[in-house]
Amino acid sequence: SRKQESMVETRSRKRAPSLVNTESVRSKRTRPTTERLLKKRSTKIVSRQKPDALSVNLQTRQVLKKTENASAGAFAEPQPSYKQLHQQLVKLSSNKRAAIQTKYFRVEEYEDEDVLMGITVPDVRSVSKDTGFFDYPLLKQLVLSKYHEERLLA
């Protein structure tokens, strides 16, 4: 029983100083975190500023001049044609990838067979980001296309 008492005493002696240290460390840590939160809040306010009114077309890397659209009052950008979009997608296509995708999509089950170009989704998204929004007639052409990736782009 003496060994147990001594063990309990030594344990309590070892724990007592460490508890005091952790409390002092906790009080020191609370101050910098509140300062950090304030700094983060101020950077969020700065990042909410409105972007410049100039539009950048990523495909041509040119800054376009502001031209007001009479109907919507928005800034007009030159719209790519269906042929230009199709050529961009053909450049990104891969016959090997198309053969692999055809197995997984099971295109023969559809009434009209779906034609795959073998383009990855990130590539289609990059084309979408570069070109921006499409007019309704161009969207209609893309949606009614026989190519899966063109419908995905729409």
UniProtKB/TrEMBL annotation:
The species this protein was found in: Paraglomus occultum
Q: What's the superkingdom here?
A: Eukaryota
Q: Which residue intervals make up region (Disordered)?
A: 1-45
Bias (Basic and acidic residues) ranges = 1-11
Under the heading Gene3D superfamilies, the entry gives:
1.25.10.90
One Pfam family of this protein, by short name?
DNA_alkylation
From the Swiss-Prot or TrEMBL record, give the protein name. Answer: 11126_t:CDS:1
